Amino acid sequence: MHTILAKKQLSPNVTRLDVLAPRIAEIKKPGQFVILRAREGDERIPLTIADADPTQGTIALVIQAVGKSTREIVAMEVCDAIRDISGPLGHPTELISSGRALCVGGGVGTAVVHPIAKALHAQGVQVTSVIGGRAKEWVIFEEELNRLGEVIVCTDDGSHGRKGFVTDAAKEVLEAGGIDVVYAVGPVPMMRAVANLTRPFGVHTIVSLNPVMVDGTGMCGGCRVDVGGETKFACVDGPEFDGHQVDFDLLADRLQTYREFEQRANACADGQCRIRR
Amino acid sequence: MSTISAKERMQIARQLMPEQEGLQRSGNFKEVNLGFSEQLAVLEAQRCLQCKDAKCIRGCPVQVNIPRFIQFITNGDLAGAAKSLASDNALPCISGRVCPQEEQCEGSCIRGAKGQPVAIGYLERFVADWALNQGSAAQEEAPAPTGKKVAVIGAGPAGLTAAGELAKKGHDVTIYEALHKPGGVLVYGIPEFRLPKKIVAAEVDRLTKAGVKIECNVVIGRTYTIPELQAQFDALFIANGAGLPVFMNVPGENFKGVYAANEYLTRVNLMEAYDAESANTPVLIGQRVAVVGGGNVAMDAVRTAKRLGAEKAMIVYRRTKEEMPARAEEIHHAAQEGVDFQLLVAPLEVVGDEKRWVTGLKCQRMELGEPDASGRRKPQPVAGSEFVLDCDVVVVAIGTKSNPLLTATCPELKLNKWGNIETDENGMTSLPGVFAGGDIVRGAATVILAMGDGKNAAQAIDRYLKTA
Ligand SMILES: Cc1cc2nc3c(=O)[nH]c(=O)nc-3n(C[C@H](O)[C@H](O)[C@H](O)COP(=O)(O)OP(=O)(O)OC[C@H]3O[C@@H](n4cnc5c(N)ncnc54)[C@H](O)[C@@H]3O)c2cc1C
Ligand SMILES: Cc1cc2nc3c(=O)[nH]c(=O)nc-3n(C[C@H](O)[C@H](O)[C@H](O)COP(=O)(O)OP(=O)(O)OC[C@H]3O[C@@H](n4cnc5c(N)ncnc54)[C@H](O)[C@@H]3O)c2cc1C
Ligand code: FES
Are residues B69 and B81 in contact, defined by beta-carbon separation less than 8 angstroms? Predict the structure, then answer.
């Protein structure tokens, strides 16, 4: 059992939970994730380890409530416990040890980019972050990233930072030159756009993929993605890959597999379920 | 003591396993075989000729003394039968249900030469279930602790058996399991209708009562490494199975609606998607499901598809029924349940619509040519025989190979060219004190061989710990 020690709402639909998981807190590296099951009978849900405090023995999970399972998890309170947490899973981020990095985060992806930026900064890499959200209240981790280097905030409605997409700001940073590597995490269309943007600049671009997962150990093959024409299992071969090689269409497509089921589960959770078989 | 003559024995016909009727059962996930009554068991036991040179024992991968436990049944001494069986086989409730008996004990039974072999598997199951229902009647006395610590990696049949044997010898055993529930293939792969989960749970319960610690959600190679475990334990037993699914490598294999059997079965079994009412994990319910392969995994997948509501559940196999590696009973049960066998058919491509949902499987017909290295006649394509099999779900069940997750993080561990761990005759790997067994050593094999490895390794570990 993994007790929730702290809970904080970061944006209208993003919540941070600090959860007791001492072993994972002790050894996790940036880019790694856990798979958790909140209660007996629940789905197994992959979530990135957004931060860790080894002295307290906690890991931070930053969760966007998008469907039934994530909504149930963010509804849990301090002192509640998560039944199963397995990890740390996946390969750690491939970090450069000097030079300049551009970190691009969209929505909850900013929480995934933050530990990468932190690790890069610790190695002496100069970090520029471009982060985005729908509007001011949706922007997360701005303060934390500010401590690591320059941050450019973009909002769709211009209510905070610049108006526009993260790709517009990222383009200007790339044009100014000197970027050795780009890390981009966010919704699939955003990662695809960033990869397309950086390609002509010839800048190595790492993206973190979020296919549907079950076991997280390479046993089921459900998380398969196409990278450079080869099938890879994101849970063990990734989750980070060379963005210029990823087949984003396939990823977006496979994420639709359970659409109908998800909508039904969501409707049931809202108490509007009329389907009883 | 029964006084039945050899002639009388010979006249008793093999007793049939009572089972749920075919069409009724293809709509539920309850166990198909209902088990012998005591009366049927005694009758069947009397068929055994009590051979002095019992070929069945040699046919058994773990050399269960079959005539001995059967004699106890004949005498009506079920407790004696249970004790006899338990001394040879740690998990008889399981092997009685899933062993390929026709290739092992029953395949060697002398009565099979002229007629039907003794139903050894059904008798084994009968005795084991009887013992399970009696509960832990005779609590064995706790052994004196040796003070030695052993880590077991993986809670499949190999790991569970080894842990039980090691605990009996007084060692302090911890099992590390990657998933949230112990059992390995027994809980995520083999469906409820063949192996009820409560049986695995009862076994696990027995182990924990015997002092074995089971830590789930620990992925060795990630949460801890082998060297870290070596530093904390006196010996290790690696039994992480052969869980990496093999795909066909044909176009369209990543379309929506294509599953590896492992994913399909894990969703339905471990994640309980079979219970559409309350399941939180989804699985696609196909109307027409094509399962590629001819082994136990393929049979489990196709029968699962039927139970989930498929109108048509099909096996697509490139040879004939005779060459199928599945247990004879599974093929028979699948046919009874209305599974359609597309034989001498090989898939070429998965066909999909514009949204990349599966709509069919493009196949070609095959014919059998000369025997290949395995002695089986090699299937060859029939020119111009391509056709599309309409289906909305495809399940690929053409095998698994060793998962490199653990071994990749321990380069000192010697592997063979297929990535399986190499061991000596004691089950010890290239690292002293690190033993391995089950599918990670053998490649995808059987439950009974995994259990046999677990038992042998436990004995070897015990010897090692005494000298170390
Ligand atoms: C390696 C990895 C790291 C992730 N890290 C984070 C994170 O730090 N924070 C966060 O909020 N989310 C993260 N996700 C995504 C998160 O796992 C899904 O949002 C969650 O599983 C959705 O479950 P649900 O029942 O709430 O929603 P559903 O109603 O099931 O689905 C809503 C949406 O999520 C997608 N989805 C469904 N199941 C999964 C699944 N098992 N894996 C991935 N996507 C799925 C669906 O395609 C759909 O678009 C990560 C995913 C992966 C693979
Ligand atoms: C669907 C299906 C049906 C089958 N039917 C039959 C049958 O009827 N008869 C028969 O004899 N055989 C059958 N088999 C084969 C049989 O199940 C296997 O040979 C047997 O389970 C192997 O046992 P094992 O203990 O070596 O491994 P497994 O049962 O595979 O168990 C390995 C365990 O290790 C865990 N693990 C993996 N990696 C790690 C890690 N890094 N750290 C920690 N834990 C880890 C896994 O999660 C798993 O629980 C079937 C197999 C399948 C898939
Ligand atoms: S999640 Fe099952 S193989 Fe990756």
Answer: yes
